[in-house]
Write the structure tokens for this entry.
Amino acid sequence: MMYTQETAEVLGLKVLGWLAADEDLLPVFLGASGASETDLRAGATDPAFLGSVLDFVMMDDAWVVRVCDAIGVSYDTPMLARQALPGGEQVSWT
């Protein structure tokens, strides 16, 4: 599936909601990103922030499996959606 920025943002919001509800992983994200819980609410409308949420989840295959199973999408979905958000473009060095 090809993602538009709008559909990628929707997926990012789903992942953010899942992350916010995960009592074990949320503090890891907050510590790694420097974000506060207030920043999570503000970031929900920021495509770049949603991209950072997807980047974080994709750091660990186990997290990808957990979130994808929880929201009912295939395991490559976060990567595909990330490419449609700011900073996620594929860079070609040739």
Remarks:
- The first helix runs from residue 5 to 21.
- The helical segments are 5-21, 26-33, 37-43, 47-57, 61-71, 77-82.
- The two ends are 26 Å apart (CA to CA).
- The mean pLDDT is 93.
